[in-house]
Amino acid sequence: MKKLNIKQNINPRISQEAHELNQYAWINDVSSWQELIDIYQSLKQQVAPKKVLLLLEDIGQCNYTSMHASMGDELYFDESKYLGDANGQEEEIFSENLQPLAIKYYLEQLAKKHNQIELERLADKIEYSQEDFDLLIQIHEHPEIIFDSAIEIKLVNVEQESEKFVAQLNGYFSCDLNPMESFSLIQYLEKNFALEYIGLGASLFFFVKNEAFEINKLNELLNDLSKIYKLNKDIFTFLKSHLLDKNYLILPYVESLDVFEGCFN
Known about the structure:
This protein has 10 helices and 7 strands.
């Protein structure tokens, strides 16, 4: 079975940009993290300067919470002034063609100074149990186990890798990192640690490391993450060893990781 499959735009009334933003392609049955990254890096080169966003785990739920996250007061994009009297299928076509405009609006909103969240303000946002940290270790050891059988790909017309977050905003529930907090974290990791945001699922953000960490820089990263996640000794030690050896980091943005219980039995 072919791994990477390009989804053709069969509706001439849907713009190619809108089509690619909705779903450009999918990847079948990824068997390892390295296989995923090889496909991702190759596709990045082919479609540049567009950015590649991956939807990796529990995509149905990810889409559902993303839809609601984008309807918050700070981010709500009012399509009605563009739709006029359109309804039914006509409205659906108009709405899809408006999505490139919507993500530009989201980016403008997230860039506003009052929506830029300092790391210190996230200090008491999330508190994980030992069970959550144990699951996070297992997720890092075998990320392919939690991937959906068909990973979806979006192409996003933005300048920075971090900015493609606007193509799939998330953080809907009150105990999650909200979209402003998530975007601030993703930008912070990109700017300070060269961690490239590659995608998300219903619970997790995924990053690749584009340069080797010096030990002092790695300690700085883990100390910063400890402010947000209150990392205990076990997960701190694991992530330190992991990031010295591997090229990826997976971070949760939800209240609990119990949805992954049973995945690794």
